[in-house]
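Readers of this paper often ask what the protein records in our data store actually look like. The remainder of this section carries one protein's record, kept here as part of the documentation.

:::
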Amino acid sequence: MVDKISNARKKELGQPDPFLEALQKWANATTRYKKQIALGIGAIVAIAAIFSGTLYSIHRSEDKASEFLAQVLSRYSDTDPVKGYEAVKADVAEFISSYPNTAASSQARVRFAKIAFDAGKFEEAHDMYLGALNEFKADPAMENLLFGSLGRTCLFLGKKAEAETYFRKIIKTKTTLLKGEALFNLGLLLADRGDTAESQQLFQKIVNEHGDSMYAPMAKARIHQL
């Protein structure tokens, strides 16, 4: 028995398949615009190649910078801090100038700041620590270390107000790194200027919240002296 097909169904079957029609249009467009498509794919490949090349260049630059920095610092000896400072001063300056915006350059600033500090070159240490601070804003732990280094350097320079600013910055951070030291140094600064009430609060805070700190026994002694 032959199936009867309605006129509506016949009409529907006579229509082209939407998927096949779209596929045919895409094929036609591909043929027509194959040059443009090829150029587009070529551009994507070129961008990828440039990006990969840039990353390779960055890694190569960082590796080279790290090797150079290691060579420079190998000439430093802390046996005589002043002579050690003089031995690497010019090379470090050249290094920072030759490899700006590298991780190795940031590390060089911190390392040389400590070298300058140990040699008693506090102004230079201060400038180096300050320069490094701008490069470690995204690293809370490193930022705290630099705040502490700047605070101690400022104390040697007699810049008590600036030192207080850095110690207060440490106290306000979420990390506990160097908080005992910052509280103690700030307490000493406040006691020195006659602000015994806040000074005592800070020493007590060390005892209460940082009892395992090396500054806790000294803080206890200072509380009894006030």
In short: Confidence is low (pLDDT under 50) at residues 1-15, 33-58.
